[in-house]
Every structure is written in structure tokens, then in C-alpha cells.
Amino acid sequence: MTEDLIIRRAGDVGRLTLNRPKALNALNQDMVDAMTSALLDWREDAGVKAVVVDGAGEKGFCAGGDIRMLAESGKAGDGRAWRFWRDEYRLNTLIAEYPKPYIALIDGITMGGGVGVSVHGDFRVAGDRTTFAMPETGIGFHPDVGGAYFLPRLAGEIGTWMGLTGARLKAADCILTGVATHYVPSEQRQALVDALEGTALDHDGEQVEALLDRFSGDAGASDLALTRGLIDSAFDGDDVGAMAARLEAAGDSWSLRQLDILRSKSPTACAVTLSALRRGADLSFREVMTQDLRVSMRCLDDGVDFYEGVRAVILDKDNAPNWAPAPSDVSRWFEPLPGDDEMSFLGQ
């Protein structure tokens, strides 16, 4: 096991705490392996009635994955990136299909890989510190970990806007969109955990939901209620260039801000992301995870923008990436991987 993940039992609850607070609890291979092992064990344990996942520290639930390692592995061709993504996507699928209540306390930064180990569970509990985003196009990547499944299923074009611009949602936004099922004030978070651990839970999750409802509060108003119409108008369709043109034509301050953000992202990543989201709207969860692995590997093999994005944001931190022009056709990003490189799932 690893010190980066704290695993324990408390009452009827299996508890997982992501324990890399200095790295905002970003996932690594050991954490993915340990989470998967614990969830598989608890799935068969009648004494575990629910699972609660949180992050150590006050700043982050989980800020993503080990991007530096993924880029290094891609350049070296050593297979570590493929293994991490395959195992991470297996974990995401395990969570999405989990037969017991899975409660993620997303009170803090929740991005990338952190989204993958939270949003697919039964309950996502936002707090005062919640910042939820899929910012991958800013590093020449795509919103993986099932982003192409849940983003297209949000109302209107909110998911398209989030996936392309990396927009950050606060607690009220998460409640409005359904990204979060509950809001519990940060000062009540430990009391909620104590109640979950101290209650004899049933098998159908009704008591879990009742406890969440008891501790839930009012997250306040979301700005998305005001901008929803602009989002739906601008981010409709299958052409990123047309979206940019509609934002420019709208001319209001919000639209022009979104235009600047969109123009700062990798054109290739935006084109691939938009295609992934449109395809994902009609795919099953496992089909999306298969698609995710294909696209992720193509970002290593075919996409120079991923390495440039990591350089600009993670390594040199100059935030001045030199993006390549968008290709006219991104269909090759979605083609099957060779042989055993294709996605496989636990139990296959």
C-alpha cells in the first residue's frame, strides 16, 4: 500500500482519504492501485454499507493526475502513461458501476483526475472551498476520466463550455448543474463524516441520503442562471471556429471574456474535445472510457500540443504555449489502439 492514500473502516463506512496535500492530492499510480483494491474488497464485504472519499488538507479534494510523469513517459515510450490511464479509467468505471453508496466530499479543488474519482459516484458533496473544473485543453489535452460522458449530459451546452474553456464552477454552480448532489458548509463537513461513521446504515442508501439532506445548506445563487442563455447560444454545434465567431458577434463582456479564454487554449485539443463530447453523448460509460484511452494515447503519439502545454504550464511556467494549428480532421484520434493497448476492464 501507499502513504498517499489512507484506507480505514469506521462503523459501516469504508473511508478513503487522498493524502498528498502538498500536491493538492493529485493521483499517482500507487493511489489508483490502492483505491481500486480497497473498493474491490469492500464491494464484497457485507459489513461495508457505503464508501466516503475525501482529500487531506483544506485546499484540494484532488487537483488531477501526475501530468509531469505522463509527459515524461510519452517522450520515453516506456508505457507508464498507458498503464496509468488504463488503470485510472478502470477505477473510474468501478466507481460508476459501484453497487454501494459512494460519497465524494469535493470541498476543495476538484479537477481532472479528481473529477474522475468523484463525479461518477452516487453523491458529490460540495463545500465552501469547492472549485470544480476540467481544464485540460489548456495543456493540449482533453477532458478524460469520463468527461465525454458526464459533460454532454449536463443541461444545454454547459458541458461543452466547460470542456472547451476549462470554466471553474463554485459550489452554487455545481448544485445548479447537478455536478454536485448536495452542498454542506465546510464547517459542517466533519460533523457529516462523524454522523455517517456513527450511524448503523441500511443497504439501500436511504439513511445515507437522509444524513446528507440533514446537513445540507443553501449554496446561494449561481451566476450560471444569468449566463445560461449565452452559453447555449455560443457553444452549440460542431465547429469551434463558429463558436468563437458567435462569441465575438455577441459583444458583451462575458462573451468577449470567453472568447479570450477559448483562444488561449490548444486549437487541436479543442477540436478533439468537441468531437469527443459530441460522440460521448451517444456512448455508454464503458464506451467513453475506451474512447478516452484512445484519445489520451494519441495526445502522446500525435499531439505535440500536449508536450508544449506541459512545458508552458507545468515545467517552465511561462504560460505562453506555442500551439500548433488545428488539424482539419481529428478522426484519427478516435481510431482503435493496436492489439493489447486497447482499453480493458476489471474482470475481463
Please tag this protein with its features:
alpha/beta; 2-enoyl-CoA Hydratase, Chain A, domain 1; three-stranded parallel beta sheet; six-stranded mixed beta sheet
Could you give a short description of this structure?
With 348 residues, this protein is α/β, with parallel strands linked by helices. Helix content is 47%, strand content 11%.
Characterization of the model:
- The structure is a single chain.
- With 348 residues, the chain is of the alpha/beta class.
- It has 15 helices and nine strands.
- The chain has helices at residues 29-43, 67-76, 80-96, 113-116, 147-150, 158-165, 171-177, 189-198, 206-215, 224-234, 240-250, 253-264, 267-280, 285-301, 304-315, and strands at residues 5-10, 13-18, 50-55, 60-62, 102-106, 109-111, 123-126, 131-133, 182-183.
- Helix 1 links the parallel strand 2 (13-18) and strand 3 (50-55).
- The longest helix has 17 residues, at 80-96.
- The radius of gyration is 20 Å and the shape is globular.
- The mean pLDDT is 96.
Topology of this structure?
Layout: E1 5-10, E2 13-18, H1 29-43, E3 50-55, E4 60-62, H2 67-76, H3 80-96, E5 102-106, E6 109-111, H4 113-116, E7 123-126, E8 131-133, H5 147-150, H6 158-165, H7 171-177, E9 182-183, H8 189-198, H9 206-215, H10 224-234, H11 240-250, H12 253-264, H13 267-280, H14 285-301, H15 304-315
Parallel strand pairs: 2-3, 3-5, 4-6, 5-7, 6-8, 7-9
Antiparallel strand pairs: 1-2
